[in-house]
Each structure stands twice: as structure tokens, then as C-alpha cells.
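#lab-general

N.A. 3:47 PM
ok so I finally got the sequence cleaned up, no stray characters, all 511 residues accounted for. can someone with queue access submit it? mine expired

B.Y. 3:52 PM
send it over

N.A. 3:53 PM
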Amino acid sequence: MAEGDPAHPRFRASAPAAALLASAFVVSTCGLIYELLASTLASYLLGDSVTQFSTVIGSYLFAMGVGSWCSRYVKRDEVRLFVRVELLIALIGGSSAAALFLLFPLVEHFRVALYGLVLAIGFLVGLEIPLLIRILRGFDFRETVSNVLTFDYVGALVASLLFPLLLMPHLGMIRTGFLFGIANAAVALALLFVLPRATGYRSEKLAGVLILIGLIAGFIASDRLQRWAEVASYGEPVIYAQTTRFQRIVLTRRDDDLRLYLNGNLQFSSRDEYRYHEALVHPALGRVANPRNVLIFGGGDGLAAREVLKHPEVAKLTLVDLDGEMTSLFSNTPTLAALNRGSLTDKRMTVINADGFRWAREHSGQYDAIIVDFPDPVDYSVGKLYTDTFYRAVRKLLAPGGMMVVQSTSPLVAPNAFWTVASTLEAVGLQTRGYHVYVPSFGEWGFVLAAARPIPDQARVLPGGRFLTPTIDQRLFDFPPDMARRPTPVNRLDNQVLVREFADAWGKYEG
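B.Y. 4:20 PM
back already:
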């Protein structure tokens, strides 16, 4: 028996065996990271995170199964094939996030590219473990399988913890992909120099070095690649971009038009945001006799707060927004603070960075007006903020005679989704009145007033607004037939019908 054979006793306790087991840990960690990257990226770009995670992970696992099944046809030279598989995974998986970001604005059928990459990576990852077990066949079979699977599962745990806690907030998706591609390539190269049977694999060593250099270059240029992708996607010069623990924040500017995007979705254009925010705030506060204590959920850009603080009666304003990076950006950047007129640092303002769903359930108080300005319910994590559970908690915070208003998507594009918000508010004992406004950047946009009392027809409208007048306030509540009230279900935590209604309506509208 030759010493280079894995079955040789000296091989069993040698560095090559330990290197192979260590590689099981690394490749498992990398494999799960690629899976999480593809799922997260799909949810960012395509919305509906539950659907995207479910279909991407399902496709990935299916491809792994196909890869494992196909490994039976490998009859010889498992080490060479294992190294080649590692290098391919490093190249494809490591560059996958960058490639998908760059392809998104350029290809018509983005899902074909997405699932093509997912299936390719999954197939290659599926080949890894069977090949590794066969390379280690000199061990006792039970010990070999136990060791390989132990390292494999531990690697999966490490990846699942690193991804949300460290990698996404500090590296972002593109840089994370390249980093783990580098890890895959390093494993392949290490095995080429450690394994006795890999002596003379010159073409693999050359390919490994070239791939490693390319991935390192990609890692270094990640920010530039991200900017290229975002410029191509938005069609506007990107002046700021940051990935936080919770979202991707992008600011663009063309001439005098400053725009904010969160996870690729437009939040405002500085040219017409005043229409949205005046319509969001003043119909609610103008129907409260003395709005001294006001609460805002969301609105981390401070623009709704700007409108609230125009009311001289307001003595205290509390803003609850999840992302501290967002509120910090709009507090400390002079251009952005000028846009919101310093509302986030006003002496009457208290900014709380917390999950609105939990905060509403855990806190008490009496607020004369409550502004709910969350992003659209594109996925279930946001959809919970439109459920009867959340509205029931918010109702407890509403003072007698108080008024709340909810941003409720477009009643023209998604009328069922819009009126579902009203039905859900009514399910917790509130009376409602829907209204809408035309915002050029968004089109027809809708809001719902809610109160535990009849909602007055007339509102006190502050003079000097750029858009809202008493006459226009009255017109906002007039719905043409294509946007008129219709029967809709209640959005509950256990069904989240609103997310599906929203996705169906906007999917038809956009494509």
C-alpha cells in the first residue's frame, strides 16, 4: 500500500486528513453563505422575502441533491475533481452577488440568471461532501461520515450567525460574496499543496492562483461594483450608499432632485415629497383640537416630523424608527438636515431606534396624533406593521379625541391592498376615512385616517403650505369608481393577506 493512498495508516493521522476535515467546515460555511446571499439579494430586488427565500433555498437544496446523485459517476481521481469543484464554487459563488446586482438592470428575465446561478452553485456544493467522504475512505466509514457531517453542520451554524450579525451590516453582499469565494479558493490551493496525491496538478494550481487574484481584486473593488450596479439600476448618479443591519440606503441626485431608496424602493423625491408629507400629516393633526403630544412610527428621514413641527401646539414629538443609521444620516448630514429643517434634532423631538411592532406593544402613553409612515408591505417583516395586532397596540396609545393616519399604498394600483388597511383598522374598533393625493414620483397615493370617534369633515389647515389648502383637503376624500371602497379582508399576523394583495397588484402593474 503506497503512503500517498488515503487508506495508508500514516495518512489517517496526518496533516492531509486534518486539512480535508477542516475543508469540510470551510466549504459548508461558504455554501450556506452563497445560499443566504442569493435569497437576500432576491428579496431586495424582487420583494416578498418569504417567497424569495423559500424558492431560492428550495432550488439550491434540489440542485445539491442532483450534485450528490451525480457524484456516483466519478470513478477515479476524486482529489483532482474535488479541487476543481472548489475552484468553480469559488469563482461562481464568490462573484455571484456582484454579477446579479450588475445583471438586474440589464437583463429582461432576471429570474433566469438568478436561478441559473443558484442551481449551478447548489449542484457544485452537492458534489463536495460525497467526494470528500470518498477521499477520506481510509477511515472507518462511521467515523468518516460522523466527522465530515459534524464539520459540515458546525460550518452551517457559523455561517447563519455571521451573515446577519457581522457580514451584512459591515461588509455588504458583494464584498461578502468575494470574501467567501477567496476562502473557497484558499481551501482548494491549500489542498493542492498539502495532499500527497495532488503533486503535479499544475493547471489546477495556476487556475487557483488566477481565481484567487481575481476574487481579491473583486473584494477590493466591491464598493465600485456596487455603485456601478446602482447607477445602472436607478439611472441616476449615486451620491451615498450604505448597507445597515436592516436595509440598503441609497441617495441619488440629478440636478435639484435628491432621491432616497431603501432596498431599491423609492421613498421620496425632493421635488415633490412635500405633497406626500403635507397630505400625510396635516389632515390628521388638523382634525385634533390640541395636538400637543405626537408620535411618528417610521419616517426616519424626518420629513413627516418637519410637517408636524409646523403646528405651534406641538410640545412633544416622539419618532420610533428601526434604523439608527437612517436617523443619524438625516440628523447629521447638512443637506439632508436642511431638507427636513432640522426636525430630528429639534428640542421637542425624541428619536427612538427600535422595532415599532415591539415598541407599541411594550409602551404606554397618550398621544393626540399618531402618524404611521412605514414602507409598503413588500414582505412579511413589514406586513406585520399593517396587522390588526399592531393596530390594536397603537390604539391603546391614542388619546381620547386623538387621530391616527396610516400610509396605505396606491388606491389606484392596489385598491384591494389599500382598503385592506381600512378594514384592518376597523377590526380593532376604529372608525376610518380613506383619502388620496397625486404625487408625481409615485402617482396616486393613499392614506387612511382612523380614530375612536367620528372623523370630522372639516380640518384646520395651516396657511403657507406648498400644496394643501382647505379646499384641497376636502377633495382628497373623493374617490372615483376605480379607487372606490370595496369589500376586503382583515390583515392578521397568521394570514398576512395584505402582502400577497400588494405583491399581486404591483406585479401586474410593473410587468
